[in-house]
Each structure stands twice: as structure tokens, then as C-alpha cells.
Amino acid sequence: MHHFIDLGDRRAVAWLWIAAGLCGIVVLASLLLPRADGQLIGSDGKFYYSILRSAVFDRDFDFANDYQLLQVDTIDSIGLTPIGKRTNPFALGTSLLWLPFLLVGHLIALAVNHLGCSVALDGSSNLHQAMVCLGTVFYAGGGFILSYRLARKWFPAFAAFLAVISLWFASPAVYYMVGQPSMSHAVSIGSNALFLFIWLSQDHPGSMRRTLLLGLTVGLLALVRWQDAILLVLPLSEFVHRAAIHELPWHKAFIHSALLLAVALAIFTPQMLMWNSVYGAALTMPQGSSFMQWSSPRFFSVLFSTRHGLFSWHPVVFIAVLGIAPLAKRNQRLAMLVAVMFLLQLYINSAVERWWADESFGGRRFTGLMPALVLPLSALIEWLWRRGRQRILITALLFLIFWNGLSFAQYRLGWVSRRDALSWREMTIDRLCLPGKILQERRLTPN
């Protein structure tokens, strides 16, 4: 029998908080290194932040002035909605979760101005932007710690810890925590982890309190990223299944389902209010009717293409999915849950018209799936460890983290296309040669 390193929960959680703190330090350091346009947030993040800035400082959902303040470079091409407002097709939830951090940033800005320094008080300053990016780090880091806590119900501390660290730093998660924290992807780590934690660890399955909490978290999932609303089918299926096997009377299954849907809809109401204000309809598809191609999903491309394929860019996710087999030996219900979550996300992401997610760092739309994948990866790590494969296991996980770091640098430095498919040479030989290329560039750069 090969015993695990006695890491201990306190030490493991402390190290995870330290990892989150380091990510936060990187984000704060970006105050000194703003983007070329002078902003800290970029890409789709400007649209997410516009929702918050407009609601707090203008008390409306008219984004024309926000796009000017944040120097949205595509403002001339942003169309108008049927009621004549600038469109904003992004979800509201990330902005709501950022609100406490924006308010703290604004209080700091007021204090700094009182001391004689000049900081814009209209929400457009880098200080305000840095604070909401810290909010992203907090929610993602907290989500990974919740994932660790959940995995500890079935697996040793060291297995759960290794799984979390691997899926944190060898997946798209790390990039959307520190490279592009103004988007919703890393925030969805927190909302997904909370959903799983409540579903799998809170109260008896038949309790109304649990159903109420599940409704709250499902509503939050949909607010942060609409695609995650598909996870609503999981608790609803559970109620039906329990009624079918006579664990729950049918009338109670109906009551639980109705409560879940009602609470989730209530939580989703702010999004519908925003849509009504911007598009003139409480329910709409802001990206247009052609955004989803439900009948022609691109499964293979989404997983294996060099154009941001999930497995080709992040092999750790493929390894985690393989862990569903040893997880099934430990707990068939958990294995089925993770498999269904993966397949649901695979289908909805494959059905998007632009399945490659534009300028995406790998499979960014799967970032919220990382908390669920902690469970099968923990199972696989435990299975290998008990068979004496410790050195191979540790070496492989460290290499995957290093490999993802090289990919991060290659992508961030603009040495590969951020939109098009990469060649296999770019994804292998060029990536391995990256450290030498960086050193050579530094030597050639004049002082």
C-alpha cells in the first residue's frame, strides 16, 4: 500500500489561498502595465464592465458613453438594438458579483482624491478596473477551494490538492484569472463550484432548504454565463429519478421542481430587466438567431482542433475526463454526474456558430467545468498513487502546468495567432523553444 503525503486540510487550503493571492498580486501589478489603450480591461471585458459602470454611475443600461470612456475600439461597428440603444450581448451576473469590489475601489478613489491625487471618479479609472479584476480572482480562487473541500468527501487531501492545482494552472482557468480577468470565464468557476457543493454536500436530497439553495445557485449560474443554465436539467432529473424509484412521492417531486424553477427565475430577473431596457424584450437571443446551430454541433473540432480545441490546448482536461472510469469504481453517481455535465457543456459549446470562441485562449468556454473535473482527476491521481506511480504522476502534472505556461506566454506575447488554427509545429516544437526565444529577444533588445 502506497500512502499519500500527509498534507492536511488546513495546509492544503492555506496553499490554495496563497495561490489565489499570487494571482491577485499579478493582477495588481497590471496597474503599472496597462494595455496600449491605457485600460486594464480588454476584449469582451469592456462590455461586462460597461454593464456595471452604467448601472452604478449612470443608473441606466445605455452603454454609448461607457464604450467611449472605455475606448471600445469596435464602437463604430457595434449595432443598435430594435429600440435604438447600443447592443451589449453579454451576461449581467459577473457585473453583479463585481459590485462590492467596485464600491471598495470607489471608496479608495475618493480617499486618494481627498489626499490630493487625481483619480477619475466616474468608474473609468484603472483603480476601479483593478478592483473588479481582483473580484474575479477572489471568486475563482474561492471556487477552487470549494472544489477541494468537495473532493475531500471522497478522496485523500493530497489527491484533491493535486487535482485542484493541476486544473487551476494547466487549464484555461489561470489565463482568465490573471491574463484576462475582466471576462466571465473565471468567475464561473466560483458559481459552478457553489452549485456542486450545495448539490452534493448539503442536507438530505428531499429537503426544501436544499432545493431553495439549488434554485439560487442555478439562477446565479445562468446570470454569470447563460450556457450554464443547461445544468438546470440535473437537479430536475434527480427529482424525477427519486420519484421513479419511490424515494420521493411524485407530488413532492413536482413541488421541488416548481420551487427550483421559481427561485432560479427570480434570480435571473435582473438579466431580463436589462434585456428589456436594451432590446425591448425580457427574453431574447442578443447575439442573433444564428448564434446557436443546435442541429450541427462540431464535437471533434471543439475538442481536438488546433483552433482552440479543449483537449489539444489543455491535455490535463483530457486526463481528467479519463478519470471518470476510476471515479465510477468509487461512486457511480458522481461519475455519471461529471459525465453528464461534461457532455452537456460539450454539446452547447459545439453548437455555437463560432465554436472556436474567437480570440480564445484554448477552450475558454469550458472554464466553468473545472470544479466538476476535480472529482475524476482526484480519483485518477489516487488510483495511480496507490499503484506506486508517484514519480510519473508528479512529473506529468508538473509538465502539464509548465506546458500550459508556455502556451500562455506564446499566446500572450502574440507569437501565435489568437484567432486562427495553429500549426502542430507552433503547438509543439515552437512552444518548447519558447524560453530560448525569449532569452534571445532580451539579448537583442537595446538597453
Helix count equals 21
Report the C-alpha radius of gyration, rounded: 22 Å
The share of residues in helices is: 55-70%
How many structural domains are formed by the residues?
1
Mean pLDDT: 92
Pick out the low-confidence regions: none
Question: Percent of residues in beta strands?
Answer: under 5%
Mass-distribution shape? globular
Category from helices, strands and their pairing: mainly alpha
Q: How far is the first residue's CA from the last residue's CA? A: 57 Å
Brief rundown of the structure:
The chain has 447 residues and is mostly helical. The protein has helices at 9-29, 45-58, 64-69, 93-114, 126-151, 157-169, 173-179, 187-201, 208-224, 233-244, 250-279, 299-304, 310-313, 315-322, 324-330, 332-350, 370-385, 390-412, 424-427, 429-432, 434-444.
Notes on the protein architecture:
- The relative contact order is 0.11.
- This protein has helices at 9-29, 45-58, 64-69, 93-114, 126-151, 157-169, 173-179, 187-201, 208-224, 233-244, 250-279, 299-304, 310-313, 315-322, 324-330, 332-350, 370-385, 390-412, 424-427, 429-432, 434-444.
- By secondary structure, it is mainly α.
- The chain is built from 21 helices and no strands.
- The protein is globular and about 60 Å long.
- Helix 5 (126-151) runs antiparallel to helix 6 (157-169).
Keywords:
447 residues; mainly alpha; 21 helices; 64% helix; 0% strand
Note the topology:
Elements: H1 9-29, H2 45-58, H3 64-69, H4 93-114, H5 126-151, H6 157-169, H7 173-179, H8 187-201, H9 208-224, H10 233-244, H11 250-279, H12 299-304, H13 310-313, H14 315-322, H15 324-330, H16 332-350, H17 370-385, H18 390-412, H19 424-427, H20 429-432, H21 434-444
